[in-house]
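Appendix C: a fully annotated inverse folding record. The material below is reproduced so that readers can follow the format used throughout the book. The structure is listed first as tokens, followed by the designed sequence.
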């Protein structure tokens, strides 16, 4: 992606994840906004580009982060919300037996005592594969620690898992279901 495409992707995420009210955007209970309203905002901000639905879908397709999804005439961020209203997601009945989370050594010191907390976000973010966890962890540190989550035992203890796009979500993961992932290959 070029710098402009990255900027547009981040602008869409900023609006849909964090501050829709600053742009007079209303989200429904699933986090969707009217696509035409978003296109109008983007075309007013990026005047030298004709931003269309196809343009946004292309940005999303070439991005390694898959930040949003378009459905009919609506668009939503698929994870990372910090807005006060809770975004409804569907419960995942059969997530993988192990999920992953990339973090820094400093954060791990807290996680091993307190578990994974959502902090300013609406959910704890987990990935279904190690590479995604590594890439996410690298946002915070050069050498991330990869944690594995024992999904089966967490589910037995009443932890609910959700999915939004490619990201798995939970409200909280207690420390007893978390360990450092050791690559045995």
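Designed amino acids, in order:
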């Amino acid at each position: 992606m070029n710098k402009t495409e990255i900027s547009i992707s981040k602008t869409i995420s900023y609006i849909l994840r964090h501050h829709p009210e600053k742009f007079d955007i209303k989200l429904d209970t699933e986090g969707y906004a009217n696509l035409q309203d978003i296109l109008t905002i983007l075309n007013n901000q990026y005047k030298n580009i004709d931003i269309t639905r196809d343009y946004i879908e292309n940005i999303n397709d070439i991005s390694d982060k898959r930040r949003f999804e378009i459905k009919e005439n609506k668009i939503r961020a698929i994870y990372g919300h910090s807005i006060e209203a809770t975004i409804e997601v569907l419960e995942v009945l059969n997530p993988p037996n192990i999920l992953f989370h990339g973090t820094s050594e400093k954060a791990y010191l807290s996680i091993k005592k307190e578990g994974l907390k959502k902090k300013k976000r609406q959910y704890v973010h987990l990935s279904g594969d190690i590479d995604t966890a590594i890439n996410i962890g690298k946002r915070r540190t050069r050498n991330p620690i990869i944690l594995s989550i024992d999904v089966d035992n967490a589910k037995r203890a009443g932890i609910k898992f959700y999915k939004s796009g490619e990201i798995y979500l939970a409200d909280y993961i207690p420390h007893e279901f978390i360990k450092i992932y050791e690559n045995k290959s």
